[in-house]
Specification:
single chain, Serine Threonine Protein Phosphatase 5, Tetratricopeptide repeat, TPR repeat, 8 helices, microtubule binding, cytoskeleton, 80% helix, cytoplasm, TPR-like_helical_dom_sf
């Protein structure tokens, strides 16, 4: 009888534990669904604001999610930071800060999802922008890395016209590089980046 009572208590406790566990799973599942739904909602809002040219509102919306693990949110934040930096109303100090911020967000997006073509594209763009603040040596030094990220973006999404255009701009820039810059590049790097107009 004692054994039967303790067995019954065990079954009740096990059933109770099981119900608690199932409830926890259900709540966790709902939280995950809610979280993913929220991300999709923010992305939808962000794309609408981007399409409407609402740069400042877009940045304010996305910067709230700067600690997100979602690459889709992060590359959009990198783009929004960069776009805000490009505005004529942005002060020189803010421009610099936003440019470096945008690179950090793009880098984080890449870390979260290496297979995201837009993360590669915006990492390349933001890295190029940072070069404007760090001088010609850094700009030329980063050029090969920038092209590699653009090429990876095209591999991941061959239909993205913007990235193909960016590779074209990259090639054109190095094809028409003035002779004195070529000399600097050759002095600084064993194999400086080069290109042709045909390319």
């Amino acid at each position: 009888q004692v054994f039967r009572k303790s067995l019954q208590r065990g079954v009740v406790l096990s059933a109770g534990s099981f119900l608690v566990y199932e409830a926890h799973k259900l709540v966790s599942g709902l939280a995950e669904v809610h979280a993913s739904f929220k991300v999709e909602e923010v992305i939808e809002q962000a794309d609408y604001l981007y399409g409407s040219g609402e740069t400042e509102k877009l940045y304010q919306l996305l910067v709230q999610h700067k600690n997100s693990d979602d690459a889709e949110l992060l590359w959009r934040l990198a783009r929004a930071s960069r776009d805000l930096a490009q505005l004529s109303s942005t002060s020189a100090e803010e421009k610099r800060q936003l440019t470096y911020e945008s690179l950090e967000y793009a880098k984080k997006a890449l870390e979260k999802n290496e297979s995201n073509f837009a993360a590669h594209k915006w990492y390349g763009i933001c890295l190029s922008d940072v070069g404007d603040f760090e001088g010609i040596k850094t700009k030329i030094g980063n050029a090969i890395i920038i092209k590699e990220h653009f090429q990876r973006a095209v591999e991941l999404n061959p239909k993205d016209a913007t990235t193909i255009h960016l590779i074209g701009i990259w090639c054109y820039s190095f094809a028409e590089m003035p002779w004195y810059q070529r000399k600097i590049a050759a002095a600084l790097f064993a194999t400086p980046p080069t290109s042709t107009f045909q390319e």
